[in-house]
Amino acid sequence: MSRFFRRGGDSSDESSSDEEEELLSGDDSGNEIIPKPSKRAVSGGSDESPDSDDSDDSDDSDEREEEKPIKKVSRFLKTAGSDSEDSDDESVKHIVKSAKDKRMEEMATSGDMIDQKLRINDWAAINTEFDKLTRLVLRQTNLSEPLPPVYLRVLSTLDDAVSKEKEGKKKMDANKARALNTVKHKVKKTIKEYEVQMKEYSADPEAFTAQYAASTQPEVLPKSKKPKKDRGDGEDGEVDAFTTVGKGGKTYSLGAADLYKNLAAIQEARGKKSTDRNEAMKILEKLRQVASTPYSRIRVLLALISSRFDYNTSVSTHMPIDIWTSAQNELNELVSILIEAPQYAVVEDFQIEYDDNVERVPSPSEPIIKVRGSVISYVDRLDEEFTRSLQNIDPHGTEYVDRLKDEKSLYETICRAEVHFEQSDPSSLARVMMRRLEHIYSKPTVVVTILERSTSEALASVLPPTFPSLNNLGTTTALVRALCVHLYQTEFSLLRTRAMLCHVYHHALQNDFHTARDLFLMSHLSETIHNADVATQILFNRAVVQLGLCAFRSGLIKEAQSTLQDIFTTQRVKELLAQGIHQQRYTVLTPEQEKAERARQLPFHMHINTELLEAAFLVSSMLVEIPHLASIDTEELKRKAISKPFRRLLDFADRQVFTGPPESTRDHIMQASKALQDGEWEKCRDLIQSIKIWSLMPEEAAVKEMLAKRIQEEGLRTYLFTYSAYYASLSLSLLATTFSLSVRTVTAIVSKMIWNEELAASLDQAAGTIVFHRVEPTRVQQLAQTLADRVSQMVEQNTKALDQKLGGGGGGGSSWNDRAAGDTGGESQERKGRSDRPRGGQRGSGGARGARGARFAQGLGGRVGGSTAIQA
Amino acid sequence: MAQWDLTKKLVPFLDRHLIFPILLNPSLAELYKPEDVQLALYELAKTTDLVDYTITLFEKVFPDQPVPEEFATKRASTLSSINRLEQEAQAVLDVIENPDVAQALRQDKLQNLQYLKDTYGLTLDQITALYNFGQLQFSIGNYSLAADYLYHFRILSTATSLVLSSQWGKLASDLLVGNWDSALEELHGLQEAIDNGSATGPAGTSLAQLQSRTWLLHWSLFLYFRHPEGRTLLLDLFLSPAYLNTIQTSCPWILRYLAAAAIISRKSSAASASRTVRGALQQIVKIIQTEEYQYSDPITLFLKELYVDFDFEGAQKWLSEAEIVLDNDFFLSDFKEEFLENARFIVSEAYIRIHQKIDIADLSARLNMSQGEGEKWIVNLIRDTRMGADAKIDLEKNMVTTHRTHPPIYQSVIEKTRGLARRTQDLSIDMNRRANGEYEAAGRGGGGVGGGSGDKENKSKGAGTGGRGRREEAN
User: How is the quaternary structure described (chain B) (predicted)?
Assistant: First the structure.
């Protein structure tokens, strides 16, 4: 009851004060803001509003009570107004304000009323109350004031109630039902109208309320100066916002002391939900113009840059580009100040407490002024925002290209920061160097040259002579090396790892396969990479892939094949390179996972073309696999594929009844493989060379030529393997003409095959022929061999059976296992690995996702390691 | 031919005194200007205590300048320190050379020290004087004495780093004196110390280990190319995974010596060892192929042409180049003839294995021989070796014809079934043991069997990981 009572009182108090206000405003003819007639109507309406009886009763008593303070307030206001020079304008203002307060209260009352009525399902009353509220709000919005949260709350509750009421409708009487219907329509309409605000409100009601309160609050604060100062440059709608600016603006004359106060105020408001970030930014921009000493400039810039970064709270979208650009400029300015005035330092944490509100200058007792802040985190953030914007912009539009142009200036900023940190902060230096390295490691020399040139021009005045730049070092490789070498010496293992991978990538990009490979192997990264974070694993995959491409370009087909093998066996090339999100068949990603995945994606310009990659992989697989396939004749051996993905494609192509002209890269390669199998090397070469994607490969012509040569050689080998059984002898010169190779090359290839016992033949030097010694085993011999095979299989089965019976737990068991693995070579392990994989995929939980990367990394490590072991 | 000369690469990894013989190698003067060599010698001597020798060199290099004063003072100071240290060391030597002491000494160093201290009042400082004196003797060129002192010191001292240093010193002294057998012993000692990681001292990083191994590789060249069994030992050491990786990482030029040693020991080694040598050759060819991007010279190129590209003409060309390289190489010059003969041998072996009919003239040309010589060579070849092929000379056509006999198919059947009986037996033993409840024993037994067959596998794996390990160390 007491609550009820109070509520009623509130409403009456409002209406009474409304009247009061009416009186006050009556003598101000200059009141241009408030549409008086409508107001009157509203307040009248509120008087007539069908309050419940008890509230009506209390009305009078309350009115008397409340009258005094209100009068007081108004008197106070009035006096304040008369104090000021332009009292006319001022008093209008005050009335506006109190009127507004009134309205607020009124609205609150109506809102509560509606709640009450809702509880008793009095739809008619709700209808009228809602009407009233709407009118009030309308007036409010006419004044371009923000929508009061009360209204939105009412809207949402009504909305809920209406939708709930649908079922109970039939039980109501006609009147009620009609009222309900009306309300329903009205609510719907209004919700549509204020859709945006509703959304905001429903997302976070508290924040909205707080923000509303904040935006209306300053109304009370402003004194006489307000209109004078800022009316000029603010639109009406931002009156509220500008009052604060006005307050800041006042400090023009008042000097630095107030500047710090304002800074402190903004700092305090920072991060609170009610803070209007736009506003803070504007104030800071003003302050920036005011600030004159290095110290104040540093302080203002620090605050300003953080507020720029605060602007965007959502994680998924990127920062607006204009804000990014201004943040960048300000960061540049900040760093320049710090470079020019080394007696000031921005440090992340230090113990000395200092008064935020006092200007500080270097003194003998305190030679270096330390300011709390972190330049490196700004640089990081700036860079991340840049990447994020590239992730979000459509890579095929001009916008992307435009955005990409900003990289030059970003690179400049990073270099500038590097210069700064070189003087001051070695640990941040490593981080900023890493940023720099990440901007150049994957770029071709031309691009790096442009970046470097513009940087050295822009920073000519501040660059120390020892600064690692293209000018000083001559080549990009030397530049990357200088950066990496510095990074290798830091204590952060993550930075070391990443620097190493970037270095490998760069060497690979520069076609320096051996150096890249040695560096890669010496780093031992393949053993530990599965412990690294996802971004580093991606970098690792990129480095591996680039290494493979490099081997391919250098004509090291086998190396290329084995390097690329693992990443293609996973069939998730795009995902592993963070160039696309893999659609999983059995599991659905949770939104968080997907979001994380998206945040991880590389911007388009960093992508390694996967089609080119696939072409390189398949062609090298073809060159390795086809002769291998031709050399083996038993079914069992045939199952051991060197390159499983290739073999799968080949089998698929074999099953095809009808093959049309090749369209995709794969078609080309598959048909080329078949041609190679048939000994038609020319057709194979033409098919391979007509693959369009090669045009993306640097040194296209050289690569094609290399491929042609390889195809000739491997064609010869395949031919010999396939058809040697049908010849007693072959003339070397014939082979040479058939494969367009010199007799010497043919001899060398054949000799090698003979020496390696791949070919049962010998050369007849006098006649220039190959003589084949192939002996077909007789039936008995074949049977004997089969028998021997069977027997050894049996023994193997026995060991396995014993193993299973006794359980693999004992030392003996594991040793049997080992031996089985040793006997069958790597095959059994391979098979194990294969059976593992799909299971992992099916599980597909977050853990499995992490593990997959790990498994890949591990597998690759084994592979590359294995290949070196062989080389060693 | 200076491009193939390795002196510059070898020198940084050698002791100053070990460099002298290399610089004094007469053929070096042909490659470089004699004055330069002289100057280098002088500069080198200046840093040692070989004062008299330095003065002689100085007079040679700068004939018209007076000998600087500093040499005289240096000489005086050296002499005085010799006197001082000799007295200190003598005290220890007197004790040690006492036959009673020699008998009383045991394996345990600490115990020995205690004994010496108790009985003769020898302190650690005195023993250290032995080391200092040995070092001084070495530095003035009195190597055999140095070896003696260092030997004694090593037996007595417990200071790890000094013992190690004395080991190096003793090795150098033995090498310079030409005492190959003791040098070999010393080398093994050092190798063990390095492999145990103790050699690298408290800062026993893998980098230090890598460096010591590099040094050891270089020093051992002196020994292995002088010692009668040296080449086979060289192959053993250099092809062990750790050292192979050291070669690949820090000093690929050692491949020349490795390749040469493999070729030379092709025939000279005992018949039983030839199989491993052949395996070694294959292994070396693989390494040469891998490391080609960082090192190649006529010897490695010869092997590559022969075994990778099967380009006999190319091999022939490089062989003739290699001849000159060998002439100029300090270590290999003595083995030129052996090298050439064995190189020819492997060429003809490969040739005959690949060809069915060979023109004698052609083969002779491949071997850089006249036709008559070639014929003789081939006859010897056919007579001496088991080529796996029955070769005949057809003089009428000037041809060699080989008839290859294929291994009968049944042989492969036999090979396949060879191990089965043993494996089954193992299986039954295992089963019996388990049946008898000897689980633990069975586990161990089974492990033994498994280990035996998997041994080779493990080794190659070890090489792989070792390889990567080494590379990181270098980094």
Answer: Component of the eukaryotic translation initiation factor 3 (eIF-3) complex.
